[in-house]
Structure formats: C-alpha cells, structure tokens
Write a structure and sequence with these properties.
Blueprint (H helix, E strand, L loop, with lengths): L1 E5 L4 H12 L3 E6 L2 H7 L5 E4 L16 E4 L12 H25 L5 E7 L10 E2 L9 H11 L9 E7 L1 E3 L4 H11 L12 E2 L1 E3 H13 L5 E5 L5 E2 H12 L9 H8 L4 H4 L3 E2 L2 H5 L9 H9 L12 E9 L3 H9 L3 H5 L7 E5 L9 E8 L2 E13 L3 E8 L4 E11 L2 E11 L3 H31 L1
Parallel strand pairs: 1-2, 1-4, 2-3, 4-5, 5-7, 6-13, 7-11, 8-10
Antiparallel strand pairs: 9-12, 14-20, 15-16, 16-17, 17-18, 18-19, 19-20
Helix pairs in contact: 1-6, 3-4, 7-11
C-alpha cells in the first residue's frame, strides 16, 4: 500500500516506518522540516512539508491507500505550562482536524485511516477494569484524548477508521522506560507514590504489530486499546524492572515529591489505569510479549555488559541510505574509512592493522585526541557475519568497555544500518556520576557527525 504518515520522526513513527517498509508498503511522510527529516528517518519516504495548523493540498492524497496519524507534541518532559498544554492540545486536535477535513475535501477514496489516542482517555479509575466501551474520564489528558478521537469521527461515512489508544510503551529508547533505566542503574529506582496504581503497558514491538495489522485488516474498527493483557501495579512493575536489571528498587518516590517536581504532569505516573485489550482479544491479536517479565527481559538484555551482565551505558542509532547492501557493507568493511567517518576534532589516525581482510580476530590500532588528551586505542573485530554484521571490541583505550555492534539489512531500495554501542567508563558509578553526561554528549556528537557524513557519501 501507499501510506501517508504523520509523526514519522517521533519515537514510534521511526520504528513503525521501518516495519511498514519491511512489509512492502511505500510511505509519504508529512513533516515540519524536510532537512531534519532527511537525517532522522531510518526508512525510505517521500517527504512533504506540512504545517499542521493548515489544511493540505488535495493532491497530497493522490494514490494514497491508507493514512497513519501519529503527530503530537510529547506529553512528558517539560512541565505543563499554559503554553505547553496548548501545544500538546493543538498538535493533536487541530492537526487531526485539518488532516481529516483535507482528506474529505479532496474527494479521494482511501482504504483506512489509522489515528492515535492514549489510555489517558479513561482518566484515573482506581481498580476498575477498563475496556473500550468505558466512558472518558476527567482532567487535561482525558479531554485531549476525547477531543482527539472526536476529530476522526467525520470519517465514519468516508472510510474505515480506527483509533489506537496506546498504553505505556516499553522501549529503552525513550518514554517512561527510557527515563527509568538510568535511575535504576545508578541506584535511585523505586516504587512511585503508593505503588498501588495500575500501569497498563505494551512492548514496543507488539504496538508496531497492532499498527501494521490495523492498516490492512478490515476488522480493525473504532477504538482499540493497545495494551498488554496483563496490567501491573506500579509496585510490581518496579520490582520486575529491578530484577531484570539486576539492581535493587529500594528508593521510593513520594507522591508529594513528584507533584512538587512535575506539577500537573505527575498524573501520568500517579493515576491508576487498569486497561484491558478487549478489541484485540476479539480480533485474536497475538502478543509476542504478554507478560511483563518477558517484555522487560527482552528489552533490558541489550543494555548489559556482554560478560558481566551488569547494566552499562548504551547508544542505538538507525540510518537508512539509498544504496544496495553489498556496497554499504563493503564501505564499512574497510578500516581506512573509519578516518572519513570520524570528526576532525578527534585527530583520528589508524596506526596499525593486522594483515588480511576484515574478519573475526582482526586487530586495528588508532591514535586520537580527546579534549586534547592523546589516546592510543586498540580494537579487535570480535564477531563477523559477512554482509550482515560485525562487532568491534576495545582491547585497550579510554573506556572500561566499548562494544560496538554494526548491523546491516536491506530495506526498500536501500540499506538500513543499526549501530548499538555498549560502553562503560573506567570507574563505573563514580565516573558516571561525575563525567557520564559529558562522555555521552561526546559519543552523540561523534555519531551525529558520522550520520551526516554517510548521508553526503551515499546521497
């Protein structure tokens, strides 16, 4: 199918775009900044500039089979000032109304319109089991979700439409889990508030599957709760997360302290929502991660030291380039190209490498300068799968651990590259607390430079 997508550069949008292309779909993405989207999107897409406060050119919907609407300002992060609450509201309701009215005005016939909402629709509900037929609750988030969903109702007589009410999405790349992992790793994790409030969650891979199914399955209609069949109380969630990470959850966070720090935004984690995926049950949707321990163990495993099993710092990036897999893999197989991909401020030079082609066991030595300090680095290619992946593992250098997995796969008419780095400073806890933020910033700058350079080299 040809899919028109909003919110493609968001946390879920980037992952969903990859899955849609893997399933043979083609994407047009409505974006606020085309140059930014070119760097951010890890999948092939035709980019269309759109100001969500305005309607769209009717030709935008030419040859479109389905629309997926993910646009919306992040709810978490900064405190909810009056201005921020308005941005959260407008980015969802105004944007969706303009998208819907533009589609209706165009007269184009599409097969489906998949929009987004959240389980915040129900509001704080204590222990009450919540299915899709439950009424909307009270409060800011409930009102946003209620109005958001109403914005899609004019399409009922135009095309098949459904609204995915998303629960707490579990992914270490962001969201609630992304914020909790560093706290638990450094010994500051614990039960939030009373710990009795229900958390209705979903593994990110299962959420992606819900959207992919909704695009093509005509039985996906109306409101659909995208949550695991087993909600967890906050206390149980905290214990399970700590166990998965191999740490203790000994530091409870009082309700009053959270309200003082976050203000009204604290309701996101303090409200109780015991939501059940009744519609998905009737649709016989298959959850790959129905249980919390199974989901967390799967998500936490890539964050652990490959030998000790301790949680370490990680960085994961995705980049798509419009070149065939063999050409891209060959470029990264040549050690000399590391110099091209490394920013000038590091003064990076390869000084020695063992003979023979790149393969498991090959040794490479570099000299570089980090903040003016000369550093000698020795690395070994620890794993090698020709045409698919390799691992470079630091033997000597500035880190206690630097374990970099490079993965390559065909995607659309190009190649998707995934980099997953696990790194640890020399004195784990002390150095993380004192200099960890600076090191992470340096690593991010290096990868940002590399991504921009790859874009220039491969078009």
């Amino acid at each position: 199918m040809n899919i028109l997508m909003t919110g493609a550069t968001g946390l879920i949008g980037k992952k969903l775009g990859i899955e849609l292309v893997r399933n043979g779909h083609k994407i047009k993405a409505l974006v606020r900044n085309i140059e930014h989207a070119k760097l951010e999107l890890p999948f092939p897409a035709e980019l269309i500039l759109w100001d969500s406060s305005k309607t769209l050119d009717p030709q935008t919907f030419d040859s479109i089979d389905s629309v997926i609407n993910l646009a919306g300002e992040p709810v978490s992060g900064a405190r909810w000032s009056k201005k921020r609450k308005q941005a959260i509201y407008d980015s969802r309701i105004v944007g969706t109304k303009n998208l819907v009215s533009s589609l209706i005005s165009s007269g184009k016939k599409i097969k489906s319109f998949i929009s987004t909402s959240a389980i915040g629709y129900y509001g704080d509900s204590g222990d009450q089991p919540l299915r899709e037929t439950a009424s909307a609750g009270q409060g800011f988030l409930s009102q946003v979700c209620f109005d958001w969903e109403n914005s899609v109702k004019p399409l009922r007589d135009v095309t098949r439409s459904c609204v995915i009410r998303i629960g707490v999405v579990l992914t270490p790349d962001g969201g609630a889990l992304g914020e909790l992992i560093p706290l638990y790793k450094n010994g500051f994790g614990g039960v939030i508030g009373s710990g009795n409030q229900w958390m209705s969650w979903i593994h990110v891979d299962d959420l992606l599957s819900v959207f992919v199914e909704a695009v093509g399955n005509e039985s996906y209609l109306g409101a659909i709760n995208a949550v695991s069949p087993q909600a967890a109380r906050n206390r149980d969630f905290s214990h399970t997360l700590a166990k998965s990470m191999g740490v203790r959850d000994w530091l409870p966070i009082p309700k009053q302290a959270l309200q003082l720090r976050l203000g009204e935004q604290s309701q996101i984690v303090l409200e109780s929502l015991n939501v059940f995926p009744e519609a998905l049950r009737k649709l016989k949707f298959n959850f790959n991660y129905p249980k919390l321990d199974l989901a967390l163990n799967h998500l936490i495993a890539p964050l652990k030291h490959p030998k000790t099993g301790k949680i370490v710092n990680t960085l994961t990036t995705y980049q798509w380039v419009p070149k065939p897999l063999p050409e891209v893999f060959e470029f990264f197989s040549l050690a000399k190209n590391l110099e091209t991909l490394t920013p000038d401020f590091l003064n990076f030079k390869i000084t020695k490498e063992s003979s023979g082609p790149m393969k498991a066991g090959k040794l490479i030595e570099y000299d570089l300068k980090l903040h003016g300090i000369p550093i000698h680095w020795e690395t070994e290619i620890a794993e090698w799968v020709d045409g698919k992946s390799f691992v470079d593992n630091q033997l000597k250098g500035p880190y206690k651990l630097w374990y970099h997995l490079h993965e390559f796969s065909s995607l659309g008419n190009g190649t998707l590259m995934k980099d997953h780095v696990r790194f640890q400073l020399p004195i784990h806890f002390i150095s993380d607390a004192i200099a960890g933020w600076k090191v992470k910033d340096d690593v991010n700058k290096i990868f940002d430079y590399r991504m921009k350079t790859v874009n220039k080299l491969f078009g």
